[in-house]
Amino acid sequence: MVMSSTTISATVPRGNYLLAQWPQEELARVLPHLEAVELLKGRVLFEAGAPSPHVFFPASSIVSLIYTTHAGASSQVAMIGPEGLVGVSSLLGGESPASRAVVQRAGLAYRLRLNVLKEEFLRGGLVTHTVLRYVQSQMTQMAQTAVCNRHHSLERQLCRWLLQVLDRQHGHQELSVTQELIANMLGVRREGVTEAAQRLQAAGLIRYTRGHIAVLDRPGLEARACECYALLKPDFQRLLPQAVTETHATTSAAFAPVAVQA
After folding, report:
1. Is 150 exposed, middle or buried (0-12, 13-18, 19+ CB in 10 A)?
2. Would you say domain 2-148+237-260 falls under CATH 2.60.120.10?
3. Helix, strand, or coil here: 24?
4. Which Gene3D superfamilies match (predicted)?
5. Which residue positions in the chain have pLDDT lower than 50?
């Protein structure tokens, strides 16, 4: 469901690295169809098996792709922030997504009708190149996450997960997150997350209060994480633009921001 909200400042498509890399000609064709939306934490953008007519380009928001078994067990298979887009499987011809898309961190995103992006994608050029490069990165993330969940300790998984969130928060070192949510993302028991968080806090790496985690020592957290983060980080950085041009930063376009409660 979509409901109106207080107007947010979103007059230009800033904050998403994919959009920032598109040439002006391609971006100009898409701008009239982009809509700035405020994604509310915990809301479902689409369910597994239910095609969405839209794709989303997160700016300050973060979205988790979650796979749920028939028995009800769930685990995050990918995390999407300002480096990417949500709904790429539909863009590539998938009739329905295999996972559910849930907003993990509330914030701004840009919503675009799938058919508009498909038309631009089929033109080829830099739009196609950046999207395909992102698809390859997301596939790498999914594969590495599967290996990590199977072979690494919960504490090391937690370090990796926290660092991945930080990378998508534009420099913010605090996370608004509960242990229950982390447990659902990692597919483990909440008690295990509690014990791992306590050890990290005792080591001076994080400070945990109910519903909030502050990272106090990022280098220490990286040293404690499994090798999966070190392998994924260069791939994530490869998606970032060398520089966001002034032309993109000053593009004028009108949006109608709304709060998506889906």
Report:
1. exposed
2. yes
3. helix
4. Jelly Rolls, Winged helix-like DNA-binding domain superfamily/Winged helix DNA-binding domain
5. 1-11, 243-262
Query: Is residue 173 classed as helix, strand or coil in its secondary structure?
Result: coil
Phi-psi region for residue 125, left (φ > 0), alpha (ψ -120 to 50) or beta?
A: left
**pLDDT at residue 242 in the model:** 58
Evaluate whether 211 touches 177 at the Cβ level (below 8 Å): yes
> pLDDT of 218-259, one tens digit each?
999 999 998 988 888 888 888 776 543 333 333 333 333 444
Contact criterion met (CB below 8 Å) for 225 and 163: yes
The Cα–Cα gap between 190 and 174 comes to 20
Domain 153-225, classified CATH 1.10.10.10, yes or no: yes
Q: Provide the strand spans (E) within 17-80.
A: 35-39, 44-46, 54-58, 62-68, 74-80
HSE-CB at 111 with a 13 A cutoff on CA atoms is 19
Q: Do 222 and 233 meet the contact criterion of CB atoms below 8 Å apart?
A: no
| Per-residue pLDDT reduced to its tens digit, 56-90 | 999 999 999 999 888 888 899 999 999 999 998 88
The DSSP code sequence of 187-202 is TS-HHHHHHHHHHHHH
